[in-house]
Write a structure and sequence with these properties.
The chain is an all-beta fold and 116 residues long. 0% of the residues lie in helices and 53% in strands. The chain has strands at residues 5-7, 10-13, 18-23, 31-39, 46-52, 57-59, 67-72, 77-82, 91-99, 104-106, 110-115. The strands form 2 sheets. Strands 2, 4, 5, 6, 9, 10 and 11 form a 7-stranded mixed sheet that branches. Strands 1-3-8-7 form a 4-stranded antiparallel sheet, with no helix packed on it. The chain is globular. It starts with a strand and ends with a strand.
């Protein structure tokens, strides 16, 4: 069982920065990929960024150049550094863990609010 736990959300003014963390309960070597999704009020959940076991990363076009996903295998943790935040980045951010056997686990979510 893998239980992702997110932290680091909060409220910030436009142009500010936040760093989200997602800690997985299982050794990260057995995890194939980790990703951040977000869901704004009244909208569907969308992929923000993902990072695979080999280090390859993918980003949504809306966050390219502003957000950076990284992972620390020793700490079983994945981070999302969010810079130049915009009001449209507001939402609940969820961590997704995909194991090497392709089981998927979602975290409980952390709220990010960006005010103009």
């Amino acid at each position: 069982q893998v239980q992702p736990v997110e932290s680091g959300g909060g409220s910030v003014q436009a142009g500010g920065s936040l760093r989200l963390s997602c800690a997985a309960s299982r050794r990260i070597i057995s995890i194939n990929a980790m990703a951040w999704h977000r869901q704004a009020p009244g909208k569907q959940r969308e992929l923000v960024a993902s990072i695979f076991s080999g280090g390859k990363t993918n980003y949504a076009d809306s966050v390219k150049g502003r957000f950076t996903i990284s992972r620390d295998n020793a700490k079983n943790t994945v981070y999302l550094q969010m810079n130049s935040l915009k009001p449209e980045d507001t939402g609940v951010y969820y961590c997704l863990v995909v194991t090497t056997t392709y089981n998927t686990y979602w975290g409980q979510g952390t709220q990010v609010t960006v005010s103009s």
